[in-house]
Amino acid sequence: MTKSNHLLQLTAIVLLASSQYSFADEACTLAAKATTDEAKRYIQCLDSQIDKAKQAQGSWIQKRKYELTKSQESTGNTQVLPLFMRSIKNNEKYLESACQWRYLIKLPNATTAAISYKLCEIELINQFTESLKHPF
Questions:
Q1: pLDDT at position 23, please?
Q2: Where are the alpha helices (DSSP H) in the chain?
Q3: Mean pLDDT in residue range 3-12
C-alpha cells in the first residue's frame, strides 16, 4: 500500500512539473471577420488549451487526493475525502450548466456558440484549478 502511495505522489509531482511549462504556449486568436477555416483553427486551439487546463487540474486533484488520503490515515477522519470528491463532481456539473446557457444564447450560429462554450470552459477550469492550489 505504501509503495503505491509513493508511486501516486511521484506521478502527481511529475505531472505538476510538466503542466507548469505547458501553459507557456501561444494564445488563441481569431480575427474579427474570420473565415470558416480560421474559426476552425481557433476552435482547435481552444480545444488544445482545454486539454492542457484539464491536465493541470487533474494533477492538482490527484495531489489533493493524496494529501487528504494521508491525512485520513493519520487522523482517522473519513469525512473530508468524500466531501472533496463530491466537490469535484459538483464542479463538473456547474461547469457544464454554466457554459451550456452561454452556448444556447449564441445559437443559431453554431461556431460562435461553440467558441463561447469553450472560452467559458477554459475560464472555469482555470478558476477551479487555482482554488485547488491554495493549501488547506
A1: 42
A2: 2-22, 36-75, 80-106, 110-133
A3: 51
Residues 6+ apart with CB under 8 A from 90: none
Give me the pLDDT at residue 17, please: 45
In 3D space, the residue among 61, 67, 51, 121 whose CA is nearest the CA of residue 87 turns out to be 61
**Measured between alpha carbons, how far is residue 20 from residues 12, 41, 59 in Å?**
12, 24, 11
Give the CB-side neighbour count of residue 34, counting CA atoms within 13 A: 15
Spell out the residues 6+ positions from residue 49 whose beta carbon is closer than 8 angstroms to its own.
25, 28, 122
User: How far apart are the C-alpha atoms of 91 and 83, rounded to whole Å?
Assistant: 12
Rg (CA), the chain: 18
Question: What are the pLDDT digits (tens) for 33-77?
Answer: 888 899 999 999 999 999 999 999 999 999 999 999 999 999 999
The C-alpha cell that represents 77 in the structure block: 477522519
46: cell is 481552444
SS3 call for 66: helix
Cell readout for 85 is 470528491
